[in-house]
Write a structure and sequence with these properties.
Number of helices: 2
Number of domains: 1
Mean pLDDT: 83
Structural class: mainly alpha
Low-confidence stretches: none
Amino acid sequence: MAGDYQPAGAVALPAAVKAAIADSIAGDPLGADQEAAALDNGWR
């Protein structure tokens, strides 16, 4: 996963699932302003 972040319950996930999640993450996390702009532009 990006950095040391792990979602709640991630410890119980199989390694293959953790790897699939990590592989699907692209770029840095959004800041509050960026997240608000994405939501305003219809992101779900």
